[in-house]
Structures are given as structure tokens and as C-alpha cells.
Design brief:
The chain has 3 helices and no strands. It is mainly alpha-helical. The termini are far apart.
Length: about 80
């Protein structure tokens, strides 16, 4: 969806009734806003990294718990 939006925006700029200079100025100003790092994309990226790290940690805990369970199930009961 994001790729489609970018391609659509690019096509729109190419067919817009502006001169080449105006289009370049517009693209430059928009690229500058993205490059400053205070935009929504930076916040989204940070949130996605945070969510991925939490999910990875959860999966590691579940895997460790499953290993303990399978190891204890494989051990025969010791006589008392």
C-alpha cells in the first residue's frame, strides 16, 4: 500500500501542470521534511522496532518453556 502511494504521488507530480523548476522545489521541500526525522515515519519505525523486540522476547520465553517441558517429559520418574 505504501509503495502504491509513493508511485501514485510520483505520477501525480510528473503530470501536474507545473514547470520543472516548481516541481523540483516542491520535491526538495518535501524530502527535507522527511529527512529531518521528526515525522510520522520515524515514530512508526520506532514503534515497529519496539513491538518486534517484545514479540521476539515473548517467543524466546515460550521456546525455553517448551524445551523445559519436553525435557522433563522425556525423563523417566525416579523411584523413591
Amino acid at each position: 500500500m505504501v509503495i502504491g502511494a509513493v508511485v501514485g504521488a510520483g505520477v501525480t507530480l510528473l503530470v501536474a501542470p507545473r514547470s520543472g523548476r516548481e516541481t523540483r522545489d516542491l520535491l526538495s521541500s518535501r524530502a527535507g521534511r522527511l529527512g529531518r526525522g521528526s515525522g510520522v515515519w520515524l515514530k512508526l519505525g520506532k514503534e515497529l522496532r519496539r513491538a518486534a523486540a517484545a514479540k521476539r522476547k515473548q517467543l524466546e520465553r515460550e521456546e525455553a518453556r517448551d524445551r523445559v517441558r519436553s525435557h522433563s517429559a522425556a525423563q523417566p520418574a525416579e523411584p523413591v
